Amino acid sequence: MGKIYQAKMSRRDSIKRLGSMTAVIMVGGVSVACDTAKPEAPRSASIPSTGHWPGIELEPITGPTYGTDPIVSAPTAPWPLTLSEEQKDQVALLSDLICPADQRGLSASAVGVPDVIDEWVSAPYASQRRDREQIVNGLQWLNDEARLRFGSHFIGLTEERHAAIVDDIAYRSQYEVAQFALPARFFSRFRRLVFGAYFSSPEGIEDIGYIGNFPIIGDYPGPTSEAMEHIRQVASAQGLPPITEYVNQ
Amino acid sequence: MQFAADKQLPELGESLEKKMASFDGFEYEVIIVGSGAGGGMAAYVLAAAGVKVLMLEAGRDYDPTKETPMFHQNHEAPLRGTSTSEKNFGYYDATVDGGWQVPGEPYSEAPDSRFMWWRARMLGGRTNHWGRLVPRFTAADFKPFSTDGVGTDWPVDYEEIAPWYDKCESLIGVCGDNPGLDDTPSSSEGVLLPPPKPRVMELLLKSACESLGIAAVPMRRAILTEPKDDRQACFWATPCGRGCSVGAAFQTTTSVIPWARKTGNLKIVTNAMVREVHLDDARKASGVTFTNRLNRKNVRVNADHIILAASACETARLLLNSKTEAFPNGLANSSGQVGRNLMDSLGAGVSGHIPALRDRPKYNEDGHTGNHLYIPWWDREGQKSGKLNFSRGYHFEVGAWFSPPGMGIAGAVDGYGKQAKDEIRSNYGTNIGLSLRGEMLVSDDCYCEIDDKTVDQWGIPVLKFHWKWSEQELNQVSHGLKWGRKIIEAMGGVVNNPNRTPEEAIEAGGQIIHEVGTTRMGADPSNSVCNKWGQTWDVENLYVMDGGVFVSNPHKNCTITILTLAMRNATRLAEQLTARMEH
After folding, report:
1. Shortest CB distance from B218 goes to which of A99, A199, A246?
2. Do A200 and B409 touch (CB under 8 A)?
3. Residue A144 placed within a domain
4. DSSP string, B276-311
5. Number of structural domains in chain A
6. Domain region containing A89
7. Is residue A27 situated within a structural domain?
8. B494-523 residue pLDDT tens
9. A224 lies in a domain?
10. How far apart are the C-alpha atoms of A130 and B383, rounded to whole Å?
11. In B, which residues are within 8 Å of A68 by CB distance?
12. Are the C-beta atoms of B508 and B495 separated by less than 8 Å?
């Protein structure tokens, strides 16, 4: 893993922002007002009493793009990457919390997911620019939350403390909890990117079991006998007419 | 039909009254504007018959045999191949310099109108990426007014067109079969190539449909399942929308255009954006002016015959922008119908997933990368007896297979860690999407006209679109949503967004990319632009051979009928011209 995260904002600046900012950010294309100064009832002793969201406003990325006629046989992403080393370390850590190595496949960072996310959030297209806003703020929120709860930036926490924070934002039900509404939306978006990048990697394709993208001479082979047997059972359990191969009527 | 590809041209002697037009040293008789389905087919028919053709294409030259990276995977592309504002259907989609917007060539929408216009700026146009779904129109489709008193009849009937469907399907190569339903007219014996075996979810769908009393049958697609002429058979991999470098998926750039070029009778000028059709004093078209997109210079070229096949809306735009004293409202527009009667297919989707298919056995489901089965319209009887509150049909296309993983694969997974990762693995291949494609009624509310306030980067006035769905369309989508849910539930599935309303589900006008009708044919010059041969009523040597000539827009995807009409109408023109040459 890379370097230890160094916050760009000092802790004092960060907390000051938390105390006084009303930010308007885009969430899933919808403008959401977030009054960060408004106090809310504490959920438990260990959770800060105030919902917060960094509200970092980023200079929009304006180019270069790959254009409307790229040479698709030699693909390149011409835009510069924008995540700092620290942000990338944090992306790597969070990606691996979301998509850890297990007996069936590698971890997200082992297949280069942080690089894909860097390319993604650095891209000069509207959808990716919205993601960048959400993700850069989300990463900062994790640091702010980590400091408020545990006095350290996110990457420096123990596994248990990572989980303590992530458990609060990893489920869509948390959209309904005021202080986690924005972080939970960030997490959903980030999770989607992580798993998308993982399972579309060569290793991820093998993990998920996609079979194809190679030429077959002759007729399309169709389902295997195992797949046919399985679908017959499914149809039968559903009370449907028996599965037959299509026969020209 | 005889394609006289190897026939020697007669000497051009004194019997021809005037010298042929020429461009860049090439003498020709016919100009074709556009190189997509209509233009490509017309060029082939004419060139094969010995007629010299100059084709003008607004976009750049394009060769799928060299430019299409068939086996690239998402991870080789920027952003994992995801759609962007520059590549609207993903990085590898074949479309060049186009999509919902063409740089420097805007269009506008009237207030409260939503219309999306897909264009390509490349040789072969949209045939390079189309879905290759090729269902035939039925006898009733050609005679909607006679069938139920709604809409307008075509000036041709199915009996007249059926042999041309056969010829066209035989030429381009179509896989499928003849299930004999009233929505699926049969091709003659020996015309169709065998369809591929269905995938297991399509078999489950078929079984579920049977339980509901409806049918799922092989989708006809313009895909070679056996080798044909100089094209290879489908090798059962890679999305057709990228273009097909082996020619198995039909596009004009691997078939009719290279074949026409081989005759020596076709010259193609690319980057030629036609801006105006000229009229001579005798109310005949004399030629066109195009802007060379590379140097911005305007070039005038003349011809004895002009075929417009620039796409329904571009052709209408060109006519409306070609104003003269004789035609102050646009060329060939004495009826006032140019730009009117614009239709698209209705689009709406129903999706879900089938829990019983979690962790189902893996196998190669690429197939021809489109749906192997589909659900044709099943309830014309219900409409005849007045049981339904809409008068036109729809079909369902099916998406349900182990597709190559992309950025959307996480779906609705919640949480994180191994549990979430396992959830995605288990759910892979359980999703089903049914895409409704329906017929809208022709409407006074849907048309395009010239926006007199906006020009494109070539100084050509742009189109403004007017669009409004009627109750008929919303009722049809309502029916489709209900049935789509029923079908997915019959498969044991869970429907996504089960409470979505028709207003939420219906896609924008133009979004299905089946726009037709803007220069419709008819039997009466007062309410149509072309006669049944695609010849404009007002200007005898001016023809339209794109989807503009459609009188209605049956829910069957339009391209096979564009190709078929272009083949038929260009054959008639070729016969007239070669008869004159031989005279």
Report:
1. A246
2. yes
3. yes
4. EEEE-TTS-EEEEEEEETTT--EEEEE-SEEEE-S-
5. 1
6. 19-61+83-208
7. yes
8. 999 999 999 999 999 999 999 999 999 999
9. no
10. 47
11. 86-87, 96-99, 102-103
12. no
